[in-house]
Amino acid sequence: MFRKWRKMDLLIAFIIFLAGVLACLTLKAPLLYALLLGLLCFISVGMKRGFAFASLGKMAWDGVKTSYTVLRVLVLIGCLTALWRASGTIAFFVYYGIKMITPNLFILMAFLLTAVLSFGIGTSFGVTGTAGVVLMILARSGGVNEIITAGAIMSGAYFGERCSPASSSALLAVTLSKADSRENLKIMLKTSIIPTIFTILIYLFLSLRNPISSIDSGILNEMKTEFFLTWPVLIPAAALLCLALGGMKVFYAVGISGLLALVISVYVQGKSIKSALMWAFFGYSPDSEMLKAVFLGGGIISMKNVLAIVIISSAYSGIFKGTGMLEKIQKQAGVLGEKIGRFPAQLIVSFCSGGLFCNQTIGIIMAEQMLGGVYTDPQEKAADVCNSIILTAGLIPWSVAATAPLAMLGVGTAAIFYSVFLYLVPIVYLFTKKEGKQQ
User: I need a surface site. Which of 170, 198, 329, 331 has the fewest CB within 10 A?
Assistant: First the structure.
């Protein structure tokens, strides 16, 4: 009986953990509760298998230490998202992006605008919560199909999630894979070309079928009043892109971009240094009540849940690695990778982990745990992860990666069907990738 329990202890732990995830999703409670419950379960399994509590604690800490690089960049990204708001950088992209919209190209421009913005700030949530909200207001007032518009916004928002220098998801994948971030950026851009062309053609067709009847300029006028939208506000975005492509480490590139945004907030937008520093920590708050629905947020405090998820997920990784409790599953995943190919196996693992854990971060870490051993090239491993779980998580209706942005946009899961970039990238990559070689 004891042996039977020993074989089932990990399964029972996963069942309890997944029940916690389901409860959090149902009750709309923070997913952190389920993660902490899972951590207790896996520690219990480790102790049941003869590992001392102190040893398990060290394993967990060793796992957390591997994410140090990611954690410190996440803190800076929190500052960056607030300071880009305060400096008018995000407002510039939104204002002039919408100004460029013609009635017959609204849906296409919604994709292109959010893609450019997401490449700058690297967060799908940040894009949907700013430009996405504005575009949905315009779509509803102008009689455009809001489901299709939301799909185009989701596509654009996830464009940068997988390749931006400021993307926490891409950074985590690169760090765990021990790959070079600049090389990964080049591979991501290269593997984006064909899917982006197809995405543009699809949204061009849908735009022509769904023209916008009018554009409410009220919110645009409010942005013009709130910010000085002159060329210097683009300096933080240009600096981040040039420094990252030039080979500078992401930590320093993001930090310099944030400092430049702080300077512009003070000397261009006329804000006080004290206010800018407070916003960097607590998040930006515009003076205009109308714009608070769009630009309120960012700051280190906005990253607290992401930081906690990365820390706890990394602790999982350390325990799994130290105890070897996932060895059988890893072997099966490795066999699957050998039979059908590494990326097809990565897709299967991505959908399973994304569906079970409902979270991108855990999915990325589980991808490393399950299939990390079948790769010899770290760049290939990072590319496979970025072209799978980072995107497929947004296609799973109950995943936080899908539910959170869709809730911001005020639409249901029907919009996933029109989020064509999210599934075109894995499909095209699946048929064009040469196993074992970089794209």
Answer: 331
CA atoms within 13 A on the CB side of 179: 30
Residue 268, token pair as written in the block:
């261009």
**Could you tell me how far CA 418 lies from the centroid of its own chain?**
19
d(CA 234, CA 360): 30
Same domain, 42 and 89: no
Mean pLDDT of the 113-133 span = 85
Task: Locate 439 and state its tokens.
Answer: 């794209």
pTM metric for this prediction: 0.82
Any idea which residue has 């854990």 for tokens?
357
Q: What is the mean pLDDT of residues 164-169?
A: 83
Would you say residue 377 lies in a domain? no
Domain presence at residue 182? yes
* Alpha carbons 333 and 316: distance in angstroms, whole number: 18
Rounded Cα distance, 236 and 260, in Å: 6
Regarding whether 174 and 128 lie in a shared domain, the answer is: yes
Mean pLDDT over 227-244 rounds to 87
